[in-house]
Amino acid sequence: MTAAARQPVVLDTNIVLDLFVFNDAAAQPLKQALEAGELDWLATEPMRDELARVLAYPQIAPRLAFYQLSADDVLAAFDRHAHLMEVAAKASVTCSDGDDQKFIDLAVAGKALLLSKDRAVLSMARRLVSLGVKARSAMQP
Asked: Has this prediction a pTM greater than 0.85?
């Protein structure tokens, strides 16, 4: 499948953790779609930096150890699947959680599906639809 034909998607950090750290069953359809090349995961360097920072949190280290992973393993999965883009311009909508604005901005710029577990992001779903973005908490058919 060509990149132009693939569904663009933006994944927030919690979704990435579900995919590559927690091996969450609900994230398996997303993981399979990424591995099959059905999705074009759009990301930016600041998103990767945030993931690296979160992987160093004291509450995450025991989870990495439990799953016999290192932060480098998770970042390698990010690098393998994510298509790094330039940081997007500020979207016309503003998230109440400033840390999540980068995900909104990129999703709007890329007219991408935005997968997030963040309440502040999901509360914007109706406003984002008018900008060509579907925001939800999990992959749906």
From this structure: yes
